[in-house]
Specification:
Elements (H helix, E strand, L loop, with lengths): L1 E6 L3 H12 L4 E7 L2 H11 L3 E4 L2 E2 L2 E2 H7 L5 E6 L5 H6 L4 E4 L4 H14 L10 E6 L2 E6 L3 E7 L2 E6 L2 E5 L3 H7 L5 E5 L2 E4 L3 E6 L5 E5 L4 E4 L4 H8 L4
Parallel strand pairs: 1-2, 1-3, 3-6, 6-7
Antiparallel strand pairs: 4-5, 8-9, 10-11, 10-14, 11-12, 13-14, 15-16, 16-17
Length: about 230
């Protein structure tokens, strides 16, 4: 039986989760918390297997709590804010419940938690979330050709389209599978599977040519790493 902790600063939200869990015989509630301090105390004393975790709370946020949890503890984020989905899956949350949710969706999250066995040490992102006016797009990481920095933002190029997201290039790089993506410049990351050829350029730099004809600069600083990843004599 899973031992569950409910962490949410909204009383009605805690009550809803408690009500849904009360009809299940495979989960028992070991505590509730309305802020970060209470949550950390409950985690230490109760050692839950599963935490239903709000994101915006007094005294910090749900990500602070999630990072402090043992890897064996499954996390289901419960929030009214869809813009945190990417960060949630970056720390290997088993699910992301967007308020308001129904019983069917809640039970689906619990089943995922039961099968998860906790959280893996590292989890590469499966997709990027991109806000477009009144909707949120999911851009699969496997479809990304290359990424470039634009100030405090990065632009993702995928399937002939580009999408701007508010994040730094170093943070984005940390979320990617290092076997598939490589930094070729301080402002550029490329999908290794999209590289068609390397051309020697002026000043000792190389030009990375993608299958769609895009030409990107491989700087001297990142050449050794690209050489190691590709086996090319650069």
């Amino acid at each position: 039986m899973l031992r569950a902790l409910i962490v949410d600063d909204e009383r009605l939200s805690r009550e809803k989760i408690r009500t849904f869990l009360s009809t299940r015989d495979d989960v028992t509630i070991v505590g509730e918390a309305a802020n970060v301090k209470q949550a950390m105390t409950a985690i230490t004393s109760e050692r839950p297997d599963l935490v239903f975790l709000d994101i915006q709370m007094p005294g910090g946020d749900g990500f602070d709590i999630a990072r402090a949890l043992p890897e064996t503890t499954a996390v289901v984020f419960v929030t009214a804010h869809d813009e945190y989905a990417l960060r949630a899956f970056d720390i290997a949350a088993v699910d992301y419940l967007l308020k308001p949710f129904d019983r069917r969706r809640f039970d689906q999250a619990v089943e995922r938690a039961k099968k998860s066995g906790g959280r893996p040490k590292e989890a590469a992102s499966a997709f990027f979330t991109v806000r477009k006016r009144d909707k949120v797009l999911l851009v699969a990481v496997r479809d990304v050709d290359w990424i470039d920095a634009e100030g405090k933002y990065v632009r993702i190029h995928a399937r002939g389209q580009s999408h701007l997201i508010r994040d730094g290039i170093a943070a984005v790089e940390a979320r990617l599978d290092k076997r598939q993506f490589v930094r070729i410049h301080r402002s550029t990351i490329v999908n290794l599977r999209r590289i068609a050829e390397m051309q020697r350029g002026d000043g000792g730099d190389y030009i990375v040519v993608l299958h769609d004809g895009t030409r990107l600069t491989l700087s001297r600083r990142f050449r050794p790493h690209v050489r190691e990843m590709t086996g090319l004599d650069l």
